[in-house]
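Dear support,

Our group has been running a series of protein-ligand predictions, and this particular one with pyridoxal-5'-phosphate is the one our PI (initials K.S.) wants archived with full inputs and outputs. We had some confusion internally about which version of the output was final, so please treat the block below as the authoritative record. The input we submitted was:
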Amino acid sequence: MSLRVEDWGFEVSQGGALVIGGVRAEALAREFGTPLHVVDESGLRRRASRLRNAFESAYAGQVTAYYALKCNNTPGIVRMTLDEGLQPEVGTPYEWCLARRLGTEPGQIMINGPNKGELLRTAVLEGAGLIVVDGPQELDDVEALCRSTARRARILLRVNPNSVPKGMNRASATGSRKASVFGFDLVSGEVSDALKRIAGSPSLHFAGLHCHVGTGVRRTRDYQRPLEILVACAAEATRYGMTVEVINVGGGFGVPTSRELDTLEFLLYQGIGRLPKPPDPREFPSIEDFAALVSEAIQRDCERYGLALPRLVVEPGRAIVSGAGVLLLGVGAVKQRPGVGTWVITDGAAGTVAFPLYYEYHEVFLCAAVHAPRSERYSLVGPVCFSADWIYRNKRMPPIVPGDVLAICDAGAYFTVQESNFGFPRPPIVAVRDGKATLLRRRETFDDMVSRDIGWSDGDEP
Ligand SMILES: Cc1ncc(COP(=O)(O)O)c(C=O)c1O
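Confirmed final output from the archive:
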């Protein structure tokens, strides 16, 4: 099973070249240079509205969809998600600032994260719509902040459901009790203690419960057990006299065309270069399937406990932006080593612009000839003198020559937020739609790169 550019909704020109949003990828590379992030704006908007509609149609109660800014916080991209009716979920003071600058009122923002620092104070003072409280110490902190500032915070309790989606790398299993730091612990009674405490606190408004089991979830039923647990906690909360207004199932919905490597694949790939298999999009559930399972699970469990249907909240990132993003890389050199293999050296890879390539499968195409037979076997690397600067090992590709442009797919999620300049200016981001390209972020300049450095040249201000 091999992936085709049509799986992302992209097109192929008559001559066989990649076309995104009505513009040839190679033309974008020529105009804006490489590395270059390209955002298929219609694809992004389509995914956002489809996700929202899927949950709104499947669930019998109210739904609010948030967009997790951590996934891609490019202002122009966040703007698109807001236009499509999503609200911001933020995890850092910068993301809060960005959401506010984009015109979102505090009451529309949800905050989340295991160590919120200054963000917690801002959220309490300015009146965030929802504060997801991550553990007992943070509960103390929110309550103290509320008391000292005469505020009342609307909180969700993040529950660690001790539940790991099938095949998920332990490092990403945010719902695991052993492997992750997140949430209140059920087993040791932290959840029950917290619920009782909140019920007795005049400073805290209990809005409901939250969990997030990880990113790139590939089976709908991986949401079932965590939801059973959340609804059981909701039933417990009602016993302490509280109403559960919100059940937040987190984000994590995977995408059909990219996936995380499981632990064994990761070791074999990084250790001995054994290439993992691509995902098969035909085996992947649709967002409507995720919405159906989540909705049915909450509805059934609430009925069992005699609870009124709470508002369903989702906070995805990847499902909205991943497939809409493509990273274009220019090939600088092709290097053959007799008896060993052939390397293709590009101007970007894991060390600078594509860190997720280290632990996820992302398809790569030759922009000039996307359907050409993959007759060669290459190792594709980046420009950094660092041995982990890989794109692909042992990858079958059409013949590649210097000057070619490669397209790495599913580059919309967790790429730009994890990039580093490692001596190279960070790339621009361009949105394409109906044959028109609009710059969302210009390329970093050398001046940008030294703009925070002081005391090193004549004339700068210490
Ligand atoms: C608490 C929380 N919510 C939402 C998300 C978004 O997840 P995804 O991009 O997989 O939808 C994350 C990502 O790690 C998260 O930690």
